[in-house]
Specification:
Elements: H1 7-27, H2 32-43, E1 47-51, H3 58-69, E2 73-77, H4 84-88, E3 89-95, E4 101-107, E5 114-118, H5 125-137, E6 139-142, E7 145-148, E8 154-159, H6 172-175, E9 178-183, H7 189-198, H8 213-224, H9 230-241, H10 252-257, E10 258-260, H11 264-280, H12 288-299, E11 304-305, H13 307-312, H14 316-326
Parallel strand pairs: 1-8, 1-9, 2-5, 5-8
Antiparallel strand pairs: 3-4, 6-7, 10-11
């Protein structure tokens, strides 16, 4: 187990994180919880899928986050005619200063530290699959050559949950690569009124960077050193395995409503995210409450529900809530 962090280091890292979070809340009005979970995902080095209707600020959120943490970012607008080479890059024939022609690799927009994949479900499965290697291994293979992506590397994707014409649902293998799936909801009447008064054009100013590459690497290292007690790790494992209906000790509710449960990758996402959330809360170790706060964003997109669940109106969030209610916290 890693050594416990000093109170001074935790306090300093928490303060640095709060600076970014407060600035983000000042840009994305009325979405404090959303901003917090997105920052947690970044600190946990996890990719994020944002699902919500158009016009809720998903794109502005990603752009503001990239600017605040001082990372390069790019935006890819996914469309049905987008090809894999359009995002990864390809080899082109170029002439050097001596007049010699040779094939050179031209990088695509995927070569950025934060990649906004806008309306990802509008691209064809072939183009979607081009992201798999990048999201898992932080590399891109074009023809027979593998190229490393800049680090840290994050994909923050958006999708519309309602409009289905011309869309291609993400396959389970790709959904599993996203550490968190966050549902983006609308803002309150008061927040909307504030937005109309303060931002007639709807767009906030681009913020100045608060972090740089060195600072974000130090924050990452601090998150890694947040302790994960054995009791909490066991609780995470029981939550994840509790989604699997094929196990003998699964509840009758799970066996009835879930066809396929979460993979071990969900446990890694939940533990890393809980470490990041504990740091934001100024704690040296992960608690059960940190795990519970992130259970839905981590698990909701990894569950394949049964026909009976669809008939009875049971969605993934209700399954997660059932697990949190039924699985006890054990201190040993």
């Amino acid at each position: 187990m890693s050594q416990l962090l000093s109170e001074e280091r935790i306090e300093q890292a928490q303060k640095e994180c709060e600076q970014v979070l407060n600035a983000l809340n000042g840009i994305i009005l009325g979405q404090e919880q959303l901003c917090k979970i997105v920052l947690v995902g970044l600190l946990a080095k996890g990719h994020i899928l944002l699902e919500g209707m158009p016009g809720l600020g998903k794109t502005e959120l990603v752009k503001a986050l990239a600017a605040l943490v001082g990372l390069d970012h790019s935006r890819i607008q996914f469309t049905p005619d987008l090809l894999p080479a359009d995002i990864t890059g390809t080899r082109i024939l170029q002439e050097d200063d001596n007049g010699q022609r040779q094939m050179q690799f031209q990088q695509g927009p995927l070569f950025s530290q934060i990649v906004l994949a806008d309306e990802i479900n509008r691209a064809s499965p072939k183009t979607q699959s081009a992201l798999l290697q990048a999201m898992q291994e932080q590399t891109v293979t074009v023809f027979d050559q593998t190229y490393p992506l800049p680090l840290p590397f994050f994909v923050l994707a958006t999708q519309n949950p309602v409009e289905q014409d011309g869309t291609y649902p993400l396959p389970e293998a790709q959904l599993d690569r996203f550490a968190f799936k966050i549902t983006v909801t609308g803002i309150t009447t008061d927040t909307l009124a504030q937005l109309l008064i303060e931002r007639p054009q709807g767009r906030p100013d681009t913020p100045a960077a608060i972090w740089n590459q060195e600072k974000i690497e130090n924050i990452f290292e601090t998150v890694k050193q947040i302790a994960l007690p054995e009791a909490v790790a066991t609780y995470i494992a029981r939550l994840v395995n509790g989604t699997r209906p094929e196990l003998d000790n699964s509840s009758s509710f799970i066996k009835q409503h879930v066809r396929w449960g979460a993979s071990p990758r969900a446990g890694l996402a939940l533990s890393n995210g809980a470490r990041a959330l504990a740091l934001l809360n100024g704690k040296p170790a992960v608690g059960f409450e940190d795990v519970k706060a992130l259970a839905a964003p981590v698990l909701r997109h990894r569950l394949i529900l049964s026909y009976e669940a669809n008939l009875s109106g049971v969605d993934s969030d209700k399954v997660v809530q059932h697990l949190l209610t039924e699985i006890p916290e054990l201190q040993h």
